Amino acid sequence: MTPADNLPSSPLPRGSTLQEELAYYKAQYEQLEAELQDFQASSRELEAELEKDVEASEKRERQLKEKVEGLGFEVDEWKTKYKQAKSEANAAQNTLQKEITTLRDTNRTFQLRLRDIEVANDDFERQARNTTSSLEDLESKYNVSIERGVMLEEEIK
């Protein structure tokens, strides 16, 4: 305990001696000076801690800003890659669509040609049947004519 702890915190009553008043105010002064030193010491400690916290926060902020900047570049890079991939995919899709259209047109052309060839083939087969039928009729008539000729020769003999 300090001597100031024994003294009252209120001013001395009237009629105190000069010595008592001087001792009282000296004790008050010493107590306040001790409190001031304690306050200054704790303030320095607190200030040092706060400065460390501020420095750590600033360092963390710088790191986060660097990370944000790096991620921003990465985002831009991915956007560029996405646009390029999309452009390439669109170009490939357009090429494939043109190829499909060309193949469909070619297929239609071949189907029409095939139909025309089948119609022509049917016509040729019909003509061949007609020709075969006509040939058979002619052969039949020829054979009948030969038989008549032979019969007429027989009659003439």
UniProtKB/TrEMBL annotation:
InterPro entries: NUDE, NUDE_dom. Belongs to the nudE family. It comes from Cryomyces minteri. Keywords: Coiled coil, Cytoplasm, Cytoskeleton, Microtubule. It is found in: Cytoplasm, Cytoskeleton. Residues 15-141 form a coiled coil. Pfam families: NUDE_C. The keyword Iron does not apply. This is Nuclear distribution protein nudE 1. The keyword Oxidoreductase does not apply. GO terms for cellular component: kinesin complex; kinetochore; microtubule. GO terms for molecular function: microtubule binding. It comes from the Eukaryota. GO terms for biological process: centrosome localization; chromosome segregation; establishment of mitotic spindle orientation; microtubule nucleation; vesicle transport along microtubule. Residues 134-157 form the NUDE domain.
